[in-house]
């Protein structure tokens, strides 16, 4: 929650996410595996481009208040070319729709974005589920 | 909830929304009035265009499962040039992020979109709060 | 959802609520019955007075976006002496904490309050569960 | 919301759901179609039987407070052999986990269950998405 | 959030939960104490067995996205004889109902289950409130 | 999540909040800045006093289950003169409205309150957004 050891936290989280995703997909549960495949497919370019889809994923994650999902989509948005002003406009939509309860997540999102921009935190891997 | 008298329902709702918005804004509560002004300002073109912002508002409304907000943003999206395929891609993001609990709202959103496209339901008024 | 037949809707809802509460309490499920008893107990005067507790119940209902609960607590607040300006301040807290997604519920809450004040809708019964 | 014209409401809703599901599946959006297929697959017997899965779907729908989903799973539970006492125990879990905000949905669930048991409302169709 | 020091985290959390529950129950607030008693009563065998009730508690916790509640019910489910395949079917219901926003919680649930199965984390105590 | 290093965690969080709020307000996004100003304005004395407004903010934060917001409003409530019995009555309203899913947040709220009362954690700063 503090920003002090954020870089380590992000790295540890990234490894944890990769490891657990593999663990989950190794399980013999077809519904779960198909859901993960569908999640990946959702953000591919179609009638809407990847940038717009990732912005929608970001705003949805913010109003539902899931920090891991927010970090993930902030990184994906940056990969898709969303600049800082655009990111803050997405934040503003989430803040107004979702209310002040979104503010703690906004703070962590901005901190994460700062670290991405300063290079402390590496780029996101290819889409790998939430 | 049924589709049978949907057109009347939409008209009645539209009148109700206008009337109550006026009633609320006539009240001497500055926080509420400022919130309504801020809500309008949020969807104006800036670093992101109106179309992208309305799509974000639509997806946020769907994952938070508010029918009135969804209808409103579906109409606004159409005004901003979102076509049917794009609308369904926005629906698909909301469905995958928010889960099957979104499905009843998706059905009503598609019904509302069908009526907008067939001209049964008129265009949305200028942005007037949720 | 429209305001047109609101008075009938409120009366029908009130009868439905009474009838179903009796039906539920007649059932042989001790957990459900105890929960209903606990719900009633929660809003009794204690360290905080009834007015403050009903205002808290109102704001909680608004940010969780449950129209039936909102109507119920608006009526209870009025019984407890909450005036219109105070009611709107409670609305403003709910709006800022919960965001624009609360607006459709705010409209219906204000419409319900208008009807209570004009005498179209009768006073609330003693606390009877949500 | 009132119980008076509930039977008509249920019939109209059932027709609306069927019609809109067909409309949605006719659309050329693979993510949405795959999600609907996955939703159906989720409740098939596997390591857990259909009855247990439908009870889980019911409780999930109640704590997320979606009336259409609740009605759907109440009907499916009955088809799977859940009796009235068992149904109320599922209700009690949802009520305690989700709180008094669930009560309005509980009232409508019990009313729907009463109608199912009295034969006023017909059995549910095979699983067809939320 | 990372899996690295999860065992310590679980132990520390378990002690914290016990200590705070005692602290809360020592307080002179009858509503809170009665709620805790009711919570315990909810999961006792009745028309439905403990296993089914704990599975419903698990799915409710997942769609409401509360990690502490999920860990608690995963442990209780295991005590009640839920095997790994059954656990994943419960996860799949929660994932499909609640959407991709559930995925981060699913990862932590699977990590916790892995540790329970490997014996790193001890069995759950008797039901003690959330 | 454990209580062991809670004092450090609170201090680190407090510094993080201050720093990120400044960072966010320095950004050239008028909607976000206006929202923050509106959030501050919301809790000022008006028709209702500060104590009642902070109690409403506390209950709203608990039913929406945001730990940072809960800690913030617990501290603000204490500054506004809310005593321990009153605080627990606010907790009881949140618990009954929001259900057992609120319990983990209640535990952390009580731990935070204990530390405030023992002087381990300092008083809250003037209202500064969530």
Automatic annotation (TrEMBL), chains A, B, C, D, E, F:
Spell out the Pfam families in the cross-references.
Answer: CMD (PF02627)
InterPro entries with a match to the protein in the record: AhpD-like (IPR029032), AhpD_core (IPR004675), CMD-like (IPR003779)
Under SUPFAM superfamilies, the record lists: AhpD-like
Report keywords, A-Z: Oxidoreductase, Peroxidase
Residues annotated as domain Carboxymuconolactone decarboxylase-like: 31-110
Q: Which Gene3D superfamilies match?
A: AhpD-like
Coiled-coil regions, chain positions:
none
A molecular-function term among this protein's GO annotations? peroxiredoxin activity
Do you know which PANTHER family this protein is assigned to?
Answer: ALKYL HYDROPEROXIDE REDUCTASE AHPD, BLR3452 PROTEIN
Q: What is this protein called?
A: Alkylhydroperoxidase
Species per Swiss-Prot/TrEMBL record: Arenimonas composti TR7-09 = DSM 18010
């Amino acid at each position: 929650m503090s920003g002090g050891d954020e870089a380590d936290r992000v790295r540890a989280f990234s490894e944890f996410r990769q490891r657990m995703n593999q663990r989950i997909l190794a399980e013999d549960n077809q519904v779960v595996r198909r859901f993960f495949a569908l999640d990946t497919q959702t953000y591919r370019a179609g009638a809407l481009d990847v940038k717009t889809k990732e912005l929608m994923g970001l705003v949805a994650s913010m109003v539902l208040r899931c920090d891991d999902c927010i970090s993930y989509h902030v990184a994906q948005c940056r990969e898709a070319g969303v600049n800082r002003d655009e990111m803050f406009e997405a934040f503003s939509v989430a803040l107004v729709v979702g209310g002040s309860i979104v503010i703690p997540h906004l703070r962590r999102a901005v901190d994460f974005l700062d670290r991405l921009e300063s290079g402390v935190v590496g780029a996101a891997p290819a889409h790998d589920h939430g």
